[in-house]
Write a structure and sequence with these properties.
The complex is a heterodimer of chains A (649) and B (90). Chain A has 649 residues and is an alpha+beta fold. Chain A has a six-stranded mixed sheet. Chain A has a four-stranded mixed sheet with strand order 9-8-13-10. A three-stranded antiparallel sheet of chain A has the order 15-16-17. The chains are: A alpha+beta (649), B alpha+beta (90).
Amino acid sequence: MKARESRVQTVMHVNLCDGGTFLETLPEQWTRQYIGCRGINGRLLLRDVKPRTEAFGPDNVLLFGTGPLDGTPVGMGRISVACKSPRGTLAEGSCGGFFGPELRRAGIDYLAIRGVADHPVYLFVTDGRVEIRDASRLWGLKTNETDAILREELSDPNIQFRYIGPAGENLVHASPIFGNLNNSGGRAGCGQVMGSKKLKAIAVRGSQGIGIADYDGFIKAYKTFRQKVDIATSRDPWTPVWSTYGAPILPRLFSGLGNLMTRNAREMRWDDEKTVSVNAEIFMEKHVTKAKACFCCPWPSCQKLYEIRSGKHQGFKGGNYWAGQPITFGSLIDNDDLELILVLSGLCNQYGLDIFHVGYTLAWAMECFENGILTSKDTDGMELKFGCRDKEGLVDLIRKIALREGFGALLALGCSEASKIVGKGSERFCLAVKGQELEGVAQRSMYMVALGVAVSEVGPDHTRWYPPYPCNPDLISREDLDQLDIRLDLRKAFQGRNPDEKGKLLRWFTISRAVVESLPSCVFLIRDTLGLDLRPWWNLFTSATGLNVAYEEFVMAGERVMNLDRLFNVREGFRREDDRLPIRMMTEDVPYFGYSRIGPGLLDRMLDEYYQENGWSLKTSIPTRTKLNQLKMGEIADELEACGVEVET
Amino acid sequence: MIHLDLRYVGHISAVTGILKEEYQTNASILIELIEELERKHQGFKGVFVNGETGRMNLNAMIYYGTEGEVPLPIIDPYHPIQDKAILTFW
């Protein structure tokens, strides 16, 4: 079997207008500078998508990126999907599964898709080749139907897919791209852009090997990595519980800490009995049929397949019940009916919708309804109240959002755009930043999270800084931190509501997570000391690629990647004033635990520290020329100035 | 005798067989409580306490809080236990 080198990466360009394809070999220097996956996707976007490109036009480029560790046991099958978002920002998100390794096995590290097809198509990618095939019969089908038909037609159980559902076809806000039925990525609108290109799916099958330059060195590095994430040896409290129960254990813990988004985050603590009823333990006992993991993941139970075994929805099958599902379709809308949560989130996967968009927009609508801003005349007759008495109405509303029918057409816009249309003060119930809905991690009790949500270029995205705390301070010595040039006070970092050092902390988290997502690997596996001491990741990268890269240069690559994100948004006109929080977080206190609002003064203080630490302008948030020169990105500063952006020295 | 609200999350509930319990005890420090719970739920202590060193395991966590107070993780086996405390084991 032919094995590909990992030090040099390739891009397969596909133009859906004329069917043209060509394979580009990227300079080895790009692997040194941006590592791969999210990093190289960011660099390609800045190079190939011109300023002010129409998101739904033929010149927007939709990227699927792997990286040097994809196809190894560290890559976890992760890919990065990226394009310009319909909201004008960068759209980038990562996703697990099996697609990434298969794409690399086909001799391709990146797919760059431009143009708009004149009819629905799908791509069939095999060793170094791309075939554009008709997908008219698939258009309008749900993701599970598309998966089943393509799998039968192509008659190969090892083919991997990415596809969109009807929501992506209908350009519904925040639609992601799906694969393996329930894995999704790119909630910043990558599925919408895929739909605008009339691209229904991508199928990939390869036969090549994955090259490891220094096999013995890689195995040694893998053993060190594995020790930190394995249930038998990890020194991290999350490892046992996540390995066996997964993320749905979080609502109970969150509620006890005042971190659970409840009734549209008016409250942050849900009734104890309700939290128990939707938590992991009951879910595992009643509905799970099979544990499931991404490619080579050491945590066998992170994902799960489920089937509802009784009641009105008996027989309904789905997968992946993490923390987001019980929060968005549970506490956020005050619904403690676990079966209803499973149906709503499962239907989102089938229709190709983003659960956070739907959950937060439903919660926004419920609060509008309870305040008389929306009435049953607006909601197709639904009594849209917290507590969800009209369960079947909610089930049907998922379909109507995906198909933009009736009241669903308003919700399909997302709460930010919908509140602009509805007006009447409804924007104060809208929990979104840069037009994108929040996720499941609280802000008013964790200031670093608040800062991370405010500054994220793609809109709220926890993978930019997850996990939101460093390791147990007892696991790493001050001497080690000094040697790694990490100037953080770890004990202060654990003080969630102390604004000191939160800018510095977020900067390190953003850089280190950019490294991990560019290799790629999964940020949920940043356990033990892996979020502070990047040397295990560095050893894996250098042994896989054979590149002689110094540790400092490796970490600097992460800093380049986070700067690429900012530069893309800067070029599209985003500035400091766009780094904000939802009105509720800035004006309302949290009852019970006494968490106060994050006023503008407090946010500005943290923003100043973050920009200062990053070497960005305090006034505009644009990276300075000094910083870009230091990162060897001076040519990008030139390009920005040519576009009329004022780059400070 | 003090009254405690004990909560068991994830794999800990597999050891106890229950998700939570109202508990009465004369224990005044964490390690005494854990030893009592070991007698009730066999295997409980081994999850939280290293048998060789007597120190708390780093791969398990206990939150300690009281009504209306934000719970905090405790890592000291001699941490005092007070009436009406809420302890979450995970």
